[in-house]
Design brief:
2 domains
Length: 192
């Protein structure tokens, strides 16, 4: 069974993904995969360098420079996605081929936005109160209210994600409560 784990920026999805991993569930982390593929020697560096030459520093993609190159430019974002998404799909297929566990998690921030929800058996949405989300995101280095608003505008609204979810995990609670929610999802998935 494949669990699709998603949540908007600042909702605590990475924390929840680490909880699944701590429970012994293999986790495919789409963001970590992109970071690896864009690092020095990564297979995406040449293609991204060809499309966005100013984003390369010391043979690796400088994520801040790449972000600046595509920020607010839908055509540039689509060009970048056409490079990144197929490579991530290949990595995800390789992950599945090497994992024989009965349960795996695909940690994908843009699960709904990329159509990934059609490739999973169960959808888990991580959420928190809007004020908690905002505080978490604005505490990040280099984040501004304007940048946060632009990112949110590109993501499926949290209310829609929750409505489409099989399970919703709340992260504006005590971590032990969040962990209990993760364990409940695992028990439910294994019983299915």
């Amino acid at each position: 069974m494949i669990i699709g784990l998603t949540g908007s920026i600042g909702m605590g999805k990475s924390t929840v993904a680490s909880m699944f991993a701590a429970e012994g569930v293999p986790v495919f982390d789409a963001d970590a995969t992109v970071h690896r593929l864009q690092a020095a020697g990564g297979r995406l560096v040449p293609a991204i360098a060809a499309a966005f030459p100013d984003a390369v520093v010391d043979g690796a993609i400088d994520r801040a420079k790449l972000g600046a190159a595509v920020f607010g430019d839908d055509a540039a974002i689509k060009r970048l996605e056409s490079i990144v998404h197929p490579a991530v799909a290949e990595e995800r297929a390789a992950f599945l081929a090497h994992n024989t566990d009965e349960l795996v998690v695909f940690d994908v921030p843009l699960l709904f936005e990329t159509g990934g929800d059609r490739r999973v058996d169960c959808i888990v949405v991580v959420t928190a109160a809007p004020e908690v989300q905002r505080a978490r995101v604005l505490a990040r280095p280099g984040m501004t209210p304007e940048k946060f608003a632009t990112i949110l505008a590109r993501q499926t609204p949290d209310s829609e994600k929750r409505a489409r979810a099989d399970h919703v995990i709340f992260t504006d609670t005590d971590l032990s409560e969040t962990r209990a929610q993760v364990r409940a999802v695992i028990a439910c998935a294994r019983a299915a």
